Amino acid sequence: MSKLHKFSILRKPIVTEKSTLLQEENRYVFEVAPSATKHEIKDAVQLAFGVSVEKVRTMNVKGKKKRFGPRYSQLRSWKKAIVTVSPGDSITLFEGV
Hints:
Alpha-Beta Plaits, 6 strands
């Protein structure tokens, strides 16, 4: 088990139409380090944004195959985390996006 630094676990927020709808249910979507565990993600979100996390759901997203001229290439695979925060808490990073 590799020990990651708290601030290297969260890579970037995922802002899509679906993730914007999830914000109404106090859920936020992040791209995270592939080796990060649910407990590490929970601690990183609590430390970075000062909210209390109730649940973390993770999934591995397989990279898509793309065509560049006559050649096919595969984009990188990545890990996604859906973080549910306590009612009343919110992450201001997503507000006004």
